[in-house]
Each structure stands twice: as structure tokens, then as C-alpha cells.
Amino acid sequence: MPVSENNNTSQQPLTNLLHTSLSENIFTIKEALGHSNDVIIREIIIDKLDCLSIAIINIDGISDKTVITDFILENLLLEIDNEPENKIDNINDYMKKQCLAVGDVKDLFDFTALFTSILNGETVIVLEGQSVAIATDTKSAKDRAVTEPQTESVIRGPRESFTETLRTNTALIRRKIKSPNLWIKSRVIGEVTQTDVAVMYINGIANDKIVQEVLDRLDQIKIDGILETGYIEDFIQDSKFSIFPMIYNTERPDVIAAELLEGRIAILVDGTPLVLTVPVVFTSFLQAAEDYYQNWIISSLIRLLRFFGISLALIMPSLYVAITTFHQEMLPTPMLISIASQREGVPFPAVVEALIMEIAFEILREAGLRMPRTIGPAVSIVGTLVIGQAAVEAGVVSAVMVIIVALTAICSFLFPSYGLSNTIRVLRFPLMILAAIFGLFGVMFGIMMIILHLCSLRSFGVPYMSPFGPLIVKDQKDAMVLFPRRKLFTRPRLVSQQNNVREQQYYEKRTKH
């Protein structure tokens, strides 16, 4: 019981209105913030206003000291000092209109708003005898510079990526879409972290029902903290137990701009360079930004290569297990003899051999990712070569198994989306188990279950496998293949159900013919 009483006491000031006494306000602020030494409280006295006391409060490190000194303290003292005595009737209004040379100024009436402003990097001015405080925008501009994307590099296209600052990210998108219809809805999520979340969409293109659904799901999130977009993704996605990624994420502003133009909705979270987009379909994870910047024929061939690569990455090990275990008659005689001679000294069945190599490769890949960048790739490559060669020479695995695992790993790197790559990595293992038990029938059964599961998924009401299921002929222009830009005059029908036409004049001309 004493613990709950202390908690109630510490939280009580957050619900109270500001006092008229400056000393009481300062005492409440210090107590609520635990007398933290990064809380700067500067008290000044104005002689010409009957020795009026003013407190200037900010957090060191997240507030810009130069702005506070040059545009608040200096202006405040000089402007009031130049005024005749007793001429100022309303000091609060006079300070906002005459003294504070900063961009954003607002009134605060309670401690909840006051603490929110201070912890966001704003500077708060509290006056003696006033139950209203003034918040000024003095957020520090220190953030990571806009650099080249680390995970989505391109040969042709923009070389800029999002940063960890929310306003920098929204500015990067507005630079590409200079339209007044690009709207932003803000939310603050996290009882403790008070994380800023922005929802961006193009009014008149995005589906209003989906926009409202996104906002409603964000409003239902009740958690103590949001540190990355993964927190938001876990709360708002439709199928929470599906292994497939249900929300698309990227660090490229040009990709987000393209998604917004198709009618999708972007979710930005302060503190992370990844931006979410909804709704999403399966083909989105196999499309790269560079597809739209080069010749459409080349882009179509590369896309087909990705679809072929995802098939190989998913079923190649299981096919090897099924054929070598149950269906040897499917192989040509010379190949069968070669594989049999290689496996002659291997003490394990094919499924155990495949599992050993797959697990070993996954361990090496994870180790390469977690190691320092200077030694990670070298250790990963050398470890793979040494372990693979040693395993073959020791007779633990066959050489053809090493080749299959290597090709499978290379195919898994074809996907632009890291989330889909992880999904394929996991699904390989149950398919290998099914192949070891039922042969090719087990492999086909596993693939059918995966396809049925994909067809049952929805992302904010949009079928996950569209435009294949349901079949939408018009949307096939930007699915497995990419049509020329002049043919892409309509937006995805199920994503944007209003203003579907990109180029109205060209579309009308085509429909007349």
C-alpha cells in the first residue's frame, strides 16, 4: 500500500493546473522531474515591472542553447528594458507578440502540457502571478545527416534515406510531393516515451476508410513505450500469427512517395529511419525502387528472376531431400551415379545432412551480421568456405549438398525486402521435414498450404495476393512484369478506390479507341 500511495503522489501534479505562484510551479517541476541535473531553470527579475520574476525552463541537450540565448533571453531583457515603466498591461501577451523571436509560441495551462513541451525540447517561460505558461520551439537541430540507404542501395536513383528525426523525414517526403493534398495526422503513443507518430496520405487518392482504420488502430495502442516501427507494426497488422510480413517498411523517401501516389498510407515514427506503408500486397516485397528508373523490359526480366529465385530459395533443399530419398528414378543415370558416389561415405540421411548445412549457414549468416562491420563479412565468407570444404573432406556432407545450400542462400538475397527473406528462410525447414516423410507429395502439400495461407491474408481489407487472387487484369501491368510508364495510367484498384486514374487525358484517349 505505501508503494501505491507514493506512486499516486508522484503522478498527482501531472493532472493539476498551473499555480499563480512561481515558486510553487518551480517546486512542482523539480519534484516531478526528480531534481534531474539536466533540467535548466533560469530565473530573472524585471525591475521595471515591479520586480516581476520569470523562470525560463528547458532540458539541456535537447534544446538549442543558441536560440534560447539569442532569441529569448536577449530579446526578453532588451525589449522589456526599453519599455517605459508600468506601460505593459498584459505581460503574457506582450511577451508573445513583442519579445519572443521564435517560430512557434503557445500557451500552457497545466503541468501535463508543460512537461510534454519541456521533454520535447521546447523552452517554457513561467511568470509570477500568471497561471499560464508560454512554450517556445527551441528543439535542437542535432540529428544524423541524410545519407545513402544502407539496406536498399540502387545503381540508378536517389541516394538519400530517412533519418531518426520525424520532421526531417516528413520534409524529405514533402520535397518529392509538393501538393497541398499531402496531409499529416499526428499521434503521441507511449505512456512513458510519448513518441510522436505521423500518418501521411494524399487526400483524394487514399481510401478514406483505410485512413480512418489506421488512425483507429493507432489510437487503440496502449503501451508504455514505442522505440521503433516494429512496435507499431505488431499492434496494427491484421494477421498477428502469420509469418509473412503484413506491413511494408523502407528507408527510401522515393519509395514512400511512390506508395503514397498509389493510394497507400505511410506511418512515420520518431526515432527510427524506417517508414511503414499500408495496405500491402505480396508482390510489393518483390519490387525494387530501381525497377521504375530503368528500361521496363530489363525491369520485367529482373522481376521474373526474383520470382524464380524465391521459388528456388523455398523448395531447392526439400526437392533434394525428396528426390534422393524417394524419387531417385527422376534423375538421369550419370547424375544419380555421381550423387550416390558422393554420398557413399556420408553417415547421415539426406534430411539430416540438409538440416546440418542449413543450420550451419544460418549461424554463420547471423554471426556475420552481428559482428563489427570491419570483420563481419570476412569472417562469414572465410567461415563458410572453410567449414564447407572441411565438412566435405571429412565425409559429413556431400559436395552437392554444399552447392545446393550455397545456391539457396544466394537466391534468398535476391529479395529487396529483408522481412520476406526471413520468412523464406524459416519455411525451408518444415518443407524439408515434409519432403523427408512424404517425398514430393509432402513438398507439394506444403506449397499448397503456403498458397492457401497467402490467399487467406488481408492487409487493411485488401487481399494479400491481389492482383492474382482475386484476379485483376488491369493491375497485372505492375505485378510479375512491369509495363512501360505510359501504360501505367491507373492506380491499383483495391488500394485506391477513388481517383484511380493517374493520367486523365491519356486514359480518356485510350478508352475512346
UniProtKB/TrEMBL annotation:
GO terms for biological process: spore germination. It is a multi-pass membrane protein. One of its GO terms (cellular component) is plasma membrane. Its main location: membrane. Keywords: Membrane, Transmembrane, Transmembrane helix. The chain crosses the membrane at residues 304-326, 398-419, 431-454. Pfam families: GerA (PF03323). It is found in: Cell membrane; Membrane. InterPro entries: Spore_Ger, UPF0353/GerABKA_families. Belongs to the GerABKA family. This is Spore germination protein.
